[in-house]
């Protein structure tokens, strides 16, 4: 995933106008391959405390405020998420506003809200502090949120890393380059990717420094915008954080408990004749080696199939799903994983076993937690109504090596058509309750351990099983 820090000169008090500018930057970021855009502290109103204090009702917002509609629509149209910071309306008649970050997902809906926890000096007279840690998961990556003065407390990024976050997002209004440069040390000390969206222009504390940027976990800067106070107009600083994706080999996935619900495996060929099955799945073998007798790969858990049919109904006219592979017997999964690991070991003789295991899990799930072997995962693609191929950017099942990384769902260097088609597929499947494995645009699942981790479910519904145990034919 590409993430972007958006820096622009917001107009004091003009929430509607600033929201429109943000919507334009979301669209620009999408055109440059970004999947997430972060805006500076109080960018909705500009950092003008006296104006906000004079009209806290008019200059504070809730996530569904009509003035923010352009941002939500831009997220929905582009499939890009946005972190929008401004005065957040408090609860109760006399409640003070907070300095709030609203995180809108690729569907335009609110993912989470974070309220700045540590207020700086005169902010205390205008705002109330928040209390909750800001966390959300998007595209298989665990993100942490912080706002400006929060970053002066070392325990904030330290707790983010302890909570399993791998990317740290800060909205700020810092006034000098020295303060901005400290984010490199924050990144290095905590092993985090760090992104800063900093303000420009003159606000209540004085001129802001601009210099929005991104730092690697090593502390190395990888992108930076211009300096303030006026900067050079609107700018985006972008960074690739694909190495922060939670892979199948991550211990957090294996740690998810399974409470097997007993739902049967069903044959999509007979249970859902309206779903177009790939030729390999419609025979007695699927995948490069075949999936064993009885068309094993044509099977799915009943709940997954229901959700696929709902997703197909949500697709635009003229498009449909093509089912390629579902259930995969545990023995076959072990063979796939071992074979790919051997290929990586031969190509990289200097890698130790742990690195090979992790790298292999980008493309093939470790057998003990494989969603396919639980009947909860499906490999599929979009086709035209008559079954013709559409541009998805890579062939289905293209490895990271073969595709140069373009198999990643949010790969940056896709054609506009391929990116649009992936957005259509993602919108339909996410809307039906499935989750994507972000290293493979075609792999979606429900009810397995990875799904549980991605959605925050307490446990997985499906564990690995043999087809003969309760399969319906």
Automatic annotation (TrEMBL):
Annotated site, Transition state stabilizer, chain positions: 328
Top-level class of the enzyme under EC nomenclature: hydrolase
The keyword Cell cycle appears for this protein: no
Annotated SUPFAM superfamilies: Carbon-nitrogen hydrolase (SSF56317), Hedgehog/DD-peptidase (SSF55166)
Domain of life: Bacteria
Cofactor note: Binds 1 zinc ion per subunit.
PROSITE patterns: CN_HYDROLASE
CN hydrolase domain location: 1-238
Pfam family, any one: CN_hydrolase
Active-site residues from the entry: 440 (proton donor/acceptor)
EC number: 3.4.13.22
Record's keyword annotation contains Cell membrane: no
Binding site for Zn(2+): 372, 379, 443
Key words, A-Z: Cell wall biogenesis/degradation, Dipeptidase, Hydrolase, Metal-binding, Metalloprotease, Protease, Zinc
Listed cofactors: Zn(2+)
Family, per entry: Belongs to the peptidase M15D family.
Protein name: D-alanyl-D-alanine dipeptidase
Species per Swiss-Prot/TrEMBL record: Streptomyces yunnanensis
């Amino acid at each position: 995933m590409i993430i972007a820090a958006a820096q622009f000169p917001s107009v004091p008090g003009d929430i509607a106008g600033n929201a429109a500018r943000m919507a334009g930057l979301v669209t620009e970021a999408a055109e440059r391959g970004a999947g997430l855009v972060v805006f500076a502290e109080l960018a909705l109103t500009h950092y003008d405390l006296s104006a906000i204090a004079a009209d806290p009702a008019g200059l504070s917002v809730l996530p569904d405020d009509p003035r923010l509609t352009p941002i939500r629509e831009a997220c929905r149209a582009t499939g890009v998420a946005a972190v929008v910071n401004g005065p957040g309306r408090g609860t109760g008649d006399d409640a003070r506003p907070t300095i709030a970050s609203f995180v809108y997902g690729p569907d335009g809906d609110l993912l989470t809200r974070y309220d700045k926890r540590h207020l700086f000096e005169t902010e205390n007279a205008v705002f109330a502090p928040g209390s909750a840690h800001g966390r959300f998961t998007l595209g298989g990556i665990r993100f942490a949120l912080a706002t400006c003065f929060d970053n002066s407390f070392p325990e904030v990024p330290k707790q983010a890393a302890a909570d399993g976050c791998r990317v740290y997002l800060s909205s700020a209004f810092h006034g000098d380059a020295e303060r901005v440069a400290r984010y490199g040390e924050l990144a290095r000390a905590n092993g985090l990717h760090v992104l800063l969206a900093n303000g420009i222009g003159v606000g209540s504390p004085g001129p802001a420094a601009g210099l929005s940027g991104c730092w690697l976990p090593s502390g190395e800067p990888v992108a930076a915008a211009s300096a303030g106070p006026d900067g050079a107009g609107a700018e985006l600083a972008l960074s690739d954080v694909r190495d922060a994706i939670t892979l199948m080999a991550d211990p957090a996935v294996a740690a998810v408990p399974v409470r097997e619900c007993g739902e049967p495996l069903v044959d999509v060929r007979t249970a859902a004749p309206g779903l177009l099955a790939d030729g390999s799945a419609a025979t007695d073998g699927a995948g490069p080696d075949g999936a064993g007798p009885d068309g094993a790969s044509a099977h799915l858990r009943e709940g997954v199939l229901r959700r696929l049919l709902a997703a197909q109904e949500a697709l635009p006219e003229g498009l449909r799903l093509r089912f390629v592979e579902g259930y995969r017997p545990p023995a076959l999964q072990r063979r796939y994983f071992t074979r790919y690991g051997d290929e990586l070991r031969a190509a990289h003789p200097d890698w130790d076993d742990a690195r090979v295991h992790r790298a292999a899990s980008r493309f093939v799930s470790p057998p003990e937690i494989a969603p396919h072997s639980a009947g909860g995962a499906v490999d599929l693609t979009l086709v035209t109504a008559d079954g013709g191929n559409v541009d998805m950017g890579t062939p289905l099942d293209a490895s990271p090596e073969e595709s140069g990384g373009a198999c990643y769902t949010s790969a940056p260097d896709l054609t506009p058509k391929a990116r649009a088609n992936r957005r259509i597929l993602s919108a339909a499947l996410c809307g039906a309750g499935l989750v994507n494995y972000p290293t493979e645009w075609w792999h979606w699942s429900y009810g397995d351990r990875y799904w549980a981790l991605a959605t925050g479910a307490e446990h997985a519904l499906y564990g690995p099983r043999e087809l003969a145990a309760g399969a319906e034919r």
